[in-house]
Write a structure and sequence with these properties.
Helix content: 10-25%
Order of helices and strands: HEEEEEHH
Structural class: alpha+beta
Radius of gyration: 18 Å
Keywords: Autophagy, Protein transport, Transport, Ubl conjugation pathway
Strand content: 25-35%
Number of strands: 5
InterPro entries: Atg3/Atg10
Number of helices: 3
Length: 140
Amino acid sequence: MDTVSAFPYLTADEFTKACASVRPLLADSALLLDDSACFLRITRRLAAALVLNADDQEHVDTHIDTPEDHDEEAIVKHSQNASFVTVHYDILLSPSYRVPVVYMIASPPQTVSQFFDLIVPHHFRDAMRETGVMGALTIL
């Protein structure tokens, strides 16, 4: 990949080249182009086990789809009450800020707390909650 002309800001051409160079490394991704923009879509299937805690509040315990899940010889244990959620990560270039932005969509739809539990690894949750809106996770 060539160098970026005005780091950290990207031109549309630089972003397209970056997406094209990363796409072959991700088996579950697609580079989508239209007349006005380009974006990289990564699709992951996550196992979300629905658990009721002592207050009968719903809580989502997660499992990220790993290469071991597709290895016939690996021993993988899945929860009996696991359901799968498909998450699409769309990475596109912000026209205003000229930096990559990630939009995430879950199917079936999740509540805010379920979505947070689904996509944020346990060891990053406290740091994400402390960061706030900037640099963390914004739910629209």
